[in-house]
Amino acid sequence: MREQEQKTLYKCEKCRDRGWIIIPREHAQALFVKCECQNVNKVKGQWKESGIKVDMCKYTFNNYKVWNDFSRKAKDSASSYYVKFEVIRYSRHNSIIFCGQVGAGKTHLAVALCLNFLESGLNVVYLPYRDVVTSIKQNMLDGDYYANIINKYQVCDVLLIDDLFKGKINESDINIMFEIINYRYYNCLPIIVSTEFTMDKLLDIDEGVGSRIYEMCKRYVVEIPKNIENNYRLR
C-alpha cells in the first residue's frame, strides 16, 4: 500500500523525477541516459515564457463550449485531426488552420491540440505572431539571434502560429513568416494556425504564404463565417 502511494507522487514514472534513467550493463559501468521528460519540461518552460501555463491551461477539449453548428464542426475537426495525426504527420497535408470570426474559440482548439501533443512528448513550439515578429524585427541586425530564433520555429515537431497577421502587416512581417512556413512546407513539418482572416484573405495578403498554408491544411481548413452569432465572447 505504501509503495503504491509513493508511486503516485512521481510526475514521471520512468525516471522517478530524477531526470535520468540508469541502464545496467554486464561487465561495464551502468549508462546514465537523460529521460524524455526533460525535453517535455524544457518545452513546457518555453510555453510558459510565451504566456501559456501548460499544467494549468484552461484551453482543453473538455472545456471547449459547443454553442452552435459551427463550433461543433470546429471541435469535431480538431478531434479528428488529433486522432489521425500519426497517420498524416509526415504527409504533405498534415496541418490544420482555424480561421475566421473573432471570439469563436480558434485559439482554444489550437492550444488544446498542442497541449495533447506536448503531453505525448512531441517538441511543440508556440508562436504568438505579433510578439514574435516584433521581437525578430527588433533584433534583425543580430545575425546569430535571428538565425537561432528562426531555426527554433522551423525545425520543431509541431508549430502553433497564433493570430497570424494580426495588426498592420508589412513586407518584413511576410518575409519572416515565409521563411518559417516555407521551411516547414518543404520538410513536411506540421503547423497549427489560428487567424482572423479567411483562407481567401490570406491568399490576398501573400499568395506564397497563403498557398503553402492551404496545401498543408487542405484536409483541415476550419473556417468560421464572420457573424456576431459565432462570437462566443458576446453570448
What is the secondary structure topology, with strand pairs?
Blueprint: H1 2-7, E1 20-25, E2 28-34, H2 36-49, H3 69-88, E3 96-100, H4 106-119, E4 124-128, H5 129-138, H6 143-155, E5 158-162, H7 171-186, E6 191-195, H8 199-205, H9 207-216, E7 221-224
Parallel strand pairs: 3-6, 3-7, 4-5, 5-6
Antiparallel strand pairs: 1-2
Describe this structure as you would to a colleague:
47% of the residues lie in helices and 16% in strands. It has 235 residues and is α/β, with parallel strands linked by helices. It has 2 domains: 2-34, no CATH class; 36-234, Rossmann fold (3-Layer(aba) Sandwich). α8 (199-205) packs antiparallel against α9. The model is unreliable at 1-5 (pLDDT under 50). A 5-stranded parallel beta sheet has the order 4-5-6-3-7, sandwiched between helices. A two-stranded antiparallel sheet has the order 1-2.
Summed up, what is this model?
By secondary structure, the chain is an alpha/beta fold. The protein has helices at residues 2-7, 36-49, 69-88, 106-119, 129-138, 143-155, 171-186, 199-205, 207-216, and strands at residues 20-25, 28-34, 96-100, 124-128, 158-162, 191-195, 221-224.
CATH superfamily of the largest domain: P-loop containing nucleotide triphosphate hydrolases
Q: What CATH architecture of the largest domain do you see?
A: 3-Layer(aba) Sandwich
The number of distinct structural domains comes to: 2
Name of the level-1 CATH class of the largest domain: Alpha Beta
Oligomer type: single chain
Radius of gyration, CA atoms, in whole angstroms: 20 Å
Class by alpha and beta content: alpha/beta
- H/E series, N to C? HEEHHEHEHHEHEHHE
